[in-house]
Amino acid sequence: MDSRKKVFVTREIPEAGLKMLEQHFDLKVRREDSPIPRDKLIEELKDCDGVLTILTDKMDAELMDQVPNLKVISNFAVGYDNIQVPQATQRGIAVGNTPEVLTQSTAEHALALIMSVAKRTNEGDMVMREDSFPGWGPMYMLGTELEGKTVGIIGYGRIGQKLGEMMEKAFDCKIIYMDHSEKSTGGARKVELDELLRESDIVSVHVPLNENTRHFIGEKELKMMKKSAYLINTARGPVVDEEALLKALQEGTIRGAGIDVFEKEPRRLAGLEKCKNLVMTPHTASATWEARTKMSEVAAQNIIGVLIEGQAPVSILNQEVLAK
Ligand code: GLV
Predict the structure, then answer these.
(1) Is 0.85 topped by the overall pTM?
(2) In the CATH hierarchy, which fold is given to the domain comprising 6-101+289-321?
C-alpha cells in the first residue's frame, strides 16, 4: 500500500510544480479545462492531506468541515480572496500563496493596458480588421503621451511598486501612491485617496480584495478623477464598481480604462463591449510562461514544506498553524 500522503491538484498547471509534487506524494491532477464543481472537489478532498487550488475554487468553512484530513491549501495565485483564511487557521489548515514570482508579469500587464488604452491600439486594430480606416487625418484617433504624467497607485505593494518603477524609468512619470504604510522607494510620494484621484493622469489599482476594498472605486471616486485620466485594474474585479465604471466610460467622466479583472468572472457587464475607450483582457496579467512556471514551483513547495518533515514552504499566510 502506498503510505505517501495524498495531494490533489484542481487544474492543470505547468509541469515544473507537478514534477516536484510527484516526488513526494500520491498525486492526482484534474486535467479538465474548467473549474471543478464544488461537490466533486469535496469528494476528491475527502482523504487528501493537501490541495493545490486555483482562484475560482471557493475554500470556505463549510467545505473544510467535510475534508478532515486536509492540512494545507496551496493557492496558485498571490490573491487569496477565494479562501477563508481565519477559518482555515481555526481548523489547523495552512494556507499558501505565490507572491513575488508574478510581480513582473502583472506589472508588465498593467503597463500594456496603459499603453494600449492611451495609444488606442486595440481600437485601431479593430478599425483595420473591419477595414473601416477612413484615411489619415490630423485629428483622427488622438491618444495620450505618457512622458512626465502623474501615475497614482492604489496599494503600493510589490506589484504597485514595480509598475511605479517602470513608469518612472520609461516615461519619467511622477509617482504618487495610497497605502496603509509608508514605502521608501524612489521619488514616490504617499498621498490620501482624494489627492491621488484628483492629481493622477493614470490611476492603477493594486490592492487585494477584502471587505475594505470591495467597490473601493465607485461613482464618487471616478467623478473625482480627471476627465483626461485612465483607470487600470489588474487586482480583483470587485475592487472597482463595474456598473459605475461602465457609466463613467459612456459619459466620458474619465478618458478610458484598462481592465484585466471583472466583478463576476468569467462574465463581464453587458455594455462594456461597446466602450471603445476600454481595453479588456481576460484575467491574464500573470499569464506568462515565466510567471506561471514559477507559480507552480512555489505552490508545490508550499505543500511540500507543510507536509514533508525537514522541508520549508515559501509563503504561508497563517504561519501560526505551522508553529503548533
Ligand atoms: C492572480 O490573479 C493572482 O492573484 O495571482
Answers:
(1) yes
(2) Rossmann fold (3.40.50)
